[in-house]
């Protein structure tokens, strides 16, 4: 067999010499494919974050087809974001999650927890952009309601259940309370009518408490 191959060796050597530049480029390209992914920082390659595949109301028992995973730059991953769909199957939501919104650990009911505690009501309250970094599920707030007639003010304690999807998006937000960002808050059921009336007259201010 060697005797048949030997006459062809000079031809192969000449072919390799002519194509050595092409071969070198191919070798470098192959090395880049193998090495570059390990050199790119995580903030560029992104992190998988679980989001809602559809609008999910409070109390939803999560199923795999109701969720999907999207790649988000690591620096933009919201606090409490979940990363594995399979870990969330069977969990129940403590607050609604809009389609495309991230499912956060604070959006989930603790074992044995009611979706809406007895004696409470769930209301949507507009929140200013400046407070967004300080608001998350479980944050205690006060709703300050002023009376335009006599100037008196009433304080009603509340608890954040969730923020609208706009609060966790990467898009720009305008200033003030007209951002379209709302918080779902728990209030005493007996005070819910009072809060709803104040919201209708735009006399509610949100403050964060400890």
Q: How are helices and strands ordered from N to C?
A: HHHHEEEEEEHE
Strand order of the largest sheet: 3-6-5-4-7
Number of strands: 7
Structure class: alpha+beta
Oligomeric status: single chain
Strand content: 15-25%
What are the low-pLDDT stretches, counting only 5+ consecutive residues below 50?
166-178
Q: Sheet with the most strands?
A: 5 strands, antiparallel
Coarse morphology = elongated
> Mean pLDDT score, rounded?
75
Approximately how much helix is present in the residues?
10-25%
* Distance between the amino and carboxyl termini: 86 Å
C-alpha Rg (nearest Å) = 29 Å
Count of DSSP H/I helices: 5
List keywords for this structure.
single chain, 210 residues, alpha+beta, 5-stranded antiparallel β-sheet, two-stranded antiparallel ribbon, 5 helices, 7 strands, 22% helix
How would you explain this protein's 3D organization?
This protein has 210 residues and is an alpha+beta fold. It contains five helices and seven strands. Strand 4 and strand 5 form a beta hairpin. It is elongated. 21% of the residues are buried.
How do the helices and strands line up, and which of them pair or pack?
Layout: H1 2-5, H2 9-18, H3 20-39, H4 42-45, E1 47-52, E2 67-72, E3 120-126, E4 140-146, E5 153-163, E6 182-188, H5 192-200, E7 204-208
Antiparallel strand pairs: 1-2, 3-6, 4-5, 4-7, 5-6
Short description:
By secondary structure, the chain is an alpha+beta fold.
């Amino acid at each position: 067999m060697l005797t048949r191959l030997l006459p062809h060796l000079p031809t192969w050597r000449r072919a390799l010499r002519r194509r050595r530049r092409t071969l070198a480029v191919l070798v470098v390209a192959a090395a880049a494919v193998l090495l570059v992914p390990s050199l790119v920082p995580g903030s560029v390659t992104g992190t998988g974050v679980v989001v809602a595949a559809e609008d999910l109301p409070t109390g939803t028992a999560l199923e795999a087809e109701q969720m999907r995973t999207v790649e988000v730059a690591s620096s933009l991953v919201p606090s409490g974001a979940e990363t594995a769909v399979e870990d969330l199957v069977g969990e129940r939501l403590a607050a609604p999650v809009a389609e495309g919104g991230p499912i956060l650990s604070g959006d989930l009911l603790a074992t044995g927890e009611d979706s809406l505690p007895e004696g409470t009501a769930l209301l949507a309250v507009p929140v200013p952009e400046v407070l967004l970094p300080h608001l998350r599920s479980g944050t205690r707030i006060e709703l300050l309601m002023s009376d335009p007639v006599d100037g008196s003010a009433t304080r009603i304690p509340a608890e954040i259940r969730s923020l609208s999807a706009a609060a966790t998006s990467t898009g720009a937000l305008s200033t003030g309370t007209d951002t379209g960002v709302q918080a779902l808050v728990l209030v005493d059921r007996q005070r819910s009518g009072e809060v709803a009336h104040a919201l209708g007259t735009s006399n509610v201010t949100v403050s964060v408490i400890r």
